[in-house]
Each structure stands twice: as C-alpha cells, then as structure tokens.
Design a protein that fits this description.
Elements (H helix, E strand, L loop, with lengths): L15 H14 L2 H6 L8 H14 L2 H12 L9 H17 L9 H13 L6 H20 L7 H16 L26
Length: 196
C-alpha cells in the first residue's frame, strides 16, 4: 500500500468515515506483532495507522533484514542439543526476522517447516525414534509443499509433537548395557557373569 501510494493526503482532506473504514481494513489484516507496535495510535484513525506504518517501514533497512535472515538460515542443531532447546533458538531467530520484516519478506509455513526439519535431520546425535518421526514429517512436508502448501503441517504442531516424543523418550529408563528400555543396568539380564 505504501509503495503504491507514497503521497498521503492530509488529515483534513480525508472524510472521517473513510478514515474509519481504512482503519477497519488495516486492523483486519495487520499481524499481532504490528498491532503491538501501533500502541498509542488511535485504532479508528486509518490515516494515522498508515503514517505510523510508513515511519516503521522507513526505519527498517536491508542490512537488518539480511542479518536476521542469515541468522535464521544458517542455524544448526548443536551436538547433543535437545529438540526443545533448538525450538526455542529457532523461534527466537524467526522472531528477530519478523521484527525487521514487513510484507512478504517472511518465509511461508511450508518453507519454515522444511528448513526446521532439515536442520534437525542434519544432527548426528538424534535418537532413532526422533529421527524416524522427523523423517516422516519431512516427507509429508515435501509432498504437500509441491502440491498444496496450505495442507503442509503447521510448524507449531510439528515442534509440539517432536518435543512431546523427546520428553517421553527421556523419561523412560534405558539400560546402557543392552540399550533396551524398561530397566537399568543394575537390573539387566544381559549381563554376563564375570569370570576370574
């Protein structure tokens, strides 16, 4: 809108009903983050909302945007890092990108899902159950991203399911001798009696 109409009319030349209608339209399409940044601007003043958005847009520069994009796109899951910790770091980097982006700069849900899952699959220290679940999500995302991006699972749902699986795995007892769940090394029947 700001790119197509760089010259804004003065407040006195816009009828009040037009300003209210513009405000309603903008409020319906603004993200929650942008609405928070518009605190102090009357919600029913469409021209004031546009003026604030123009100020915000002018203060964002390409350097900020490209730095936030690099941070997100170059993330890696660290050795022995939990998925829940990686989710927090990924979301933080995504939020930083959202704060310096306006419009269509942000990756779509399908792009985020593929990026997130690829980063997890690149980890060498992923438990087999989590790897299998991640591969399943990745294959599902790949199928839907080429046919219908709207059917791609939501990133938040995938994050939740992976964290739940990780949590359930970490609460099980796993024997370090035979690597089987359900008992500890002291209770392991696979122990060979020590011969002297």
């Amino acid at each position: 809108l700001l790119e197509h109409y760089p010259l804004l009319p003065t407040e006195s030349s816009v009828p009040l009903s037009t300003s209210h209608a513009l405000a309603s339209l903008l409020q319906a399409y603004l993200s929650t983050d942008l609405k928070h940044l518009l605190n102090g601007v009357p919600k029913d003043d469409g021209l004031a909302i546009i003026m604030r958005l123009r100020e915000m847009y002018a203060s964002i520069n390409n350097g900020d945007r490209s730095q936030a994009q690099r941070k997100l796109y170059n993330m890696n899951m660290m050795d022995n890092e939990s998925i829940s910790n990686f989710v927090v770091r990924f979301r933080k980097a995504l939020h930083e990108l959202e704060t310096v982006s306006i419009g269509n700069d942000l990756p779509s849900n399908a792009e985020l899902v593929n990026m997130f899952l690829s980063m997890i699959l690149a980890s060498r220290y992923l438990r087999p159950e989590l790897r299998a679940m991640t591969v399943n999500f990745y294959q599902q995302a790949q199928r839907t991203s080429f046919t219908n991006q709207d059917q791609c699972p939501a990133l938040a749902d995938i994050e939740y399911d992976l964290c739940q699986m990780e949590n359930s795995i970490s609460t099980r007892n796993v024997c370090y001798i035979c690597q089987k769940p359900g008992h500890t090394a002291q209770e392991c029947r696979s122990k060979q009696p020590q011969t002297s």
